[in-house]
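Hey, quick one: can you model this chain's 3D structure?
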Amino acid sequence: MDTDGKGIILQIQKFSIHDGPGIRTTVFLKGCNLRCRWCANPESQICRPEFTLDRLKCVRCGRCVENCGQRARTVIGPQEYPAVDPAVCTMCLACEQHCPQQAIGHEGRLVTAGEVAAEAKKDKPFYDHSGGGVTLSGGEVLMQREFTISLCRKLHEQGIHVAVETAAAVPSEQFQELLREVDYLFVDMKHYDSVKHREGTGVGNEQVLQNIEGLQDSNKPFRIRIPVIPGFNDSAKDAKGFAQVLNKLGVPEVQLLPFHQMGERKYELLGREYTYQGKPQLHPEDLEAYRGIFEKYHIKAQIGA
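Sure thing. Here's the predicted structure for all 305 residues.
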């Protein structure tokens, strides 16, 4: 959503140390064009504010329905949980405010680029001392392209280093526009094979690989990251496939991110099905042999952030 310099963010997380060099403030934007089956941040997928419901707290008292001025809230039957119609809801938050059990919450709020930049500026002494700055994450930052570009420029006006996290599954002209506005990039590479990439994320990887190739001519520092997902890209064959493609692209190092389950509870709150429900998470030691295959191809591989 790009309107009058405004965008929808999830949160501003301060004193981050794993999202780029130095001490950083990470701004999480809402909206993503991928639907990764293992996504740890499902609340970032839809580019609009949305409600959560904790069914462990909800007693189905109907207060949310009674206090909804737009009649966007409904409960069908005494055993049903309250539902909301996003086409009618104006996110006035009356339902959340009148919930006696605090079972209703929401994800996403509308802000201006100036507001975010002003908040980030408060910690500029920490950035300057540590070589840090602000990292824009998501979701996919280019789903709110105008807001992202505006925010990058406002941060640079204040002398703040800007990094972004992106899956790079966007048109090359948009990716190149972003490149001109940032100082550092993290680019996720989900799979080396386009068919498998589409199975896991909903889109092929041709655009991703093209944009990674374009990074080489940008003179911008970047890091390729591979989320290692059980049953999707975690085999020795997969490591070899990644290494071969990265060699062709001239990428000398990667960051391997072990699959985790920190987002599992979020699916429950959003009322969505999670494909990887109950799947055991991976630990750094589980990826040692995987990492070794990259080393055989002379690609330096770091496990974890």
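One thing worth noting: Residues 50-107 form a domain with the Alpha-Beta Plaits fold (CATH 3.30.70.20).
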